[in-house]
Amino acid sequence: MGHGHGHGAVSAGAQHLGRLWVAFGVGAAFMVVEFGVGIATQSLALISDAAHMLTDVLGVGMALAAILLARRAKVAGSRTFGMYRAEVLAALANAVLLFGVAGYVVVEAVGRFGDPPEVPGLPVVLAAAAGLAANLVSFFMLRDGAKDSINVRGAYLEVLADLIGSVGVLVSGAVTLLFGWRYADPIMGVAIGLFVLPRTWKLAAGALRILFQHAPERVDVAAMQTDLGGLPGVEEAHDLHVWTLTSGMEVASAHLTTCRDADPTQVLQAAQALLADRYHIEHATLQVEPGDSAQRCREISW
Fold first, then answer.
1. N or C, which end of the chain is more exposed by having fewer CB within 10 Å?
2. pLDDT class for 209, splitting at 50, 70, 90?
3. Average pLDDT of the residues of the chain
């Protein structure tokens, strides 16, 4: 048996830990401001944007959590895979919360279209401008780290998308302030909510895919099994499993049945190289077994 390890995504993100903390602090502070002003002014657009900013804060928080847990929660005792899944659970909780907020905004907006309340434009514009400034700070803080770490890249893309929402709230606030058009706010609130929902669904689906231990979308499992089975000295590849531990950390295990004259070490090295080079999986546990000992594997139903 043999295995290889690759934790580059976490170590790369750790280089940008200070910037992540700044982005997290700035985003959290201005998210609270937007929620507060949005509730006080009854601005659905601002509440929607604050909910969208919540995705940024949680996205940065999950990147931080992945780095900090990797440092502190070493593999030990019963934690044979550490606590990397905490990031995935946080992503799922984030998605559930956002579905709730988006649903509230849509239902509330539909009720308001009959007689939209008067939303003061100036506080909305000022709060949206502050939110836009916070997003710009986070954007520049995370831009370099996004090139090195998949965790940081996810947070960076969240911030980038939220810039659109902040601009939308500024527009609706300006329209309300200049023209007094009461429909601008609920329309923009629904628009931002609908913009967030597909990304929220994707986030939830990605988290569930990891928790159910499905193979990564980019991996063709049938092709991988064929490639492993076609290696020199290998008669058959079976009991193949491919899954994701957390963002950027993909794992595989397989049994390789070999010919009688095959060198197990060479087969193992060839299989590890194939998985690393062709499928970018560096952590693989591979069992190399002679043909006459593979019958027991076929007797196991799962």
1. C
2. very high
3. 80
Instruction: Name the strand (E) or helix (H) holding 225.
Output: helix 221-229
In CATH terms, the superfamily for domain 221-299 is Cation efflux protein, cytoplasmic domain (3.30.70.1350)
**CATH code for the domain defined by 8-211:** 1.20.1510
Instruction: Using DSSP, state whether 117 is helix, strand or coil.
Output: coil
Q: How many CA atoms lie within 13 A of 106 on its CB side?
A: 13
Instruction: Using CA atoms of 148, 252, 205, 188 in order, give the dihedral in degrees to the nearest 10.
Output: 10
pTM over 0.85: no
Assess whether pLDDT exceeds 70 at residue 66.
no
Same fold, 8-211 and 221-299: no
Residue 239: CB atoms within 10 A of its CB come to 16
Q: Which residues pair with 255 in a beta bridge?
A: 238, 287
Residue 276 has pLDDT above 90, yes or no: yes
How far apart (Å, rounded) are the C-alpha atoms in residues 193 and 44? Answer: 9
